Amino acid sequence: MTSFLQQCFNGLVGGAFYALLALGLAVIFGMLGVVNFAHGAFFMLGAFGAYVLLTGVGVPFWAALVAVPAMLFVAGAVLERTLIRHLAPLDPLYNFLLTFGLTLVLQDAVKREYGVQSQPYPRPAELSGSVNLGLFDYPAYQVFVLAAAVVLCAAVWLVLTRTRVGMVVRAATERPELSRALGVNVGRWVTPVFAFGVALAGLAGVLAAPMRAVNPLMGADLIIAVFAVVVIGGLGSVFGSVLAGFAIGLVQALGNLYVPALSQTLIFIIMAGVLLWRPAGLFGREEAPA
Fold it and tell me: What's the whole-model pTM score?
């Protein structure tokens, strides 16, 4: 039982990164209809941003947790205004190719500067110990990551469902033509929503830095699984993407314990089954027949 519960916690912590990344992808896709393949690269930049701030100017983890997402918010806004927006009227494939190419550029730029070797990033001293969870002790930093992801996802959900700004964003996301007809300036919300999604990826990267090796390919190793999570939860569904992220993390961790040979492919088996049963995903909107 102890081993099972420990593995469940491992799965939820891994699912926290899936949930944060899938949340950003879902928000961007819902508003712009853009499949942002560069999301993994922004996750990697978040981790490297924390590393550079610490080693270069001595900025600690807690300050980097605020500064790095803020910088990536600005970078995301510039990217949307200068590149994404101009391709939006065209086939979505063009923006997919753009973000795919941007991923390669960012990865190679980091490789050129820091090489391919993994860089260490220390855990904050306040979270270096462990927490007694009753049946077992668990690293305090992992508990913090799980709690932070849950709080952040819940906060985003509350903003989207309980505030006027959230109502406008959801309306512009789900029914952009109708929102325009009712006088909502949908274009005004596109840039901050895209930038917010990029900032979420950066925040996840900062949180991952003390747990995972900081290297140029850390986002590439994760983004394919995150896309599968978003498809399972439902493209554009914030709630579905977050729930699927935690669930897939849990399934993968238990797969490592009971069926290790299938642990890396379980997520794609689940995705195939969900698409066969419900092509729009578990919480996605079914399109009306033409």
Answer: 0.91
Contact 68, 82 (CB under 8 A): no
In a domain, 285, yes or no: no
Q: Which domain holds residue 202?
A: 11-116+125-277
C-alpha torsion 92→284→80→76, nearest 10: -140
Cα-Cα end-to-end distance for the chain: 52
SS3 64: helix
Instruction: Provide the 3-class DSSP secondary structure of residue 137.
Output: strand
- Span 127-185, pLDDT tens digits: 888 888 777 788 899 999 999 999 999 998 888 888 887 777 777 766 667 777 877 77
CATH number, domain of 232, equals: 1.10.3470
Q: Is residue 103 within 8 Å of 41, Cβ to Cβ?
A: yes
73/245 Cα distance (integer angstroms): 23
CB-CB contact of 208 with 17 (8 Å): yes
Structural element, H or E, at residue 132: strand 130-132
Quick one: pLDDT at residue 285?
A: 65
Which phi and psi angles does 38 have, rounded to 5°?
Answer: -80, 0
